[in-house]
Amino acid sequence: MLHKSFIDLEAVQELNAWADSITKPKKPTTDGSSGSWSLAELENVPSVVNVVRSKCLGIAGECFVEPMFRDFINETLLGRHVHRHTDPTVGEYKHIRYNILLRKPKAGGVLYHDDIEIPMDEGDLYILDTAKWHGITMVTEGKLYRSIVFGFLIP
What we know:
The protein is an alpha+beta fold.
C-alpha cells in the first residue's frame, strides 16, 4: 500500500543529513548489492526517527517489532540492485515492512513488490508484506537509492 507524502521534505532532508554523517560501516547484503545500518546499532539517532516510527505504528496497530532485521536504513549504490527475494517471518505472524524513500536516484532504484514497480517519490511510504517477492531495480543514474525501513510482525 502506497502512502504519498507520508513524511514532509523537511523530515526527508533531516534524515538524509543524518545518514550522510554516519561513519560506521554498512552491513552488506548477502549478495553484496547494497548495505544497511541497523538503527539499534547507531548513535545520535535524531528524534525525527521516533516521530516517523510512531506515525508508522499508528497505521500498523497491534504489532511486535520484527526481531531479525528490525529497523534500518538501506542504501543501494549506482550500478547495484537488491535481488528479488522474500524474507522469513516468525510463527504465524505477517512480516510487514514500512519503507520510506529518502533518496531517489535519477533512473532506476525502484522498489518492486509482488513483481509490480511502485512509483515512489522522496517522503513516500510503501507498506509491503515480505512473504511476497520484492527488491529494488538497478540504480542506473544519479544519486543512490536510500530508504528508512521499519519492520513489524502483525498477528
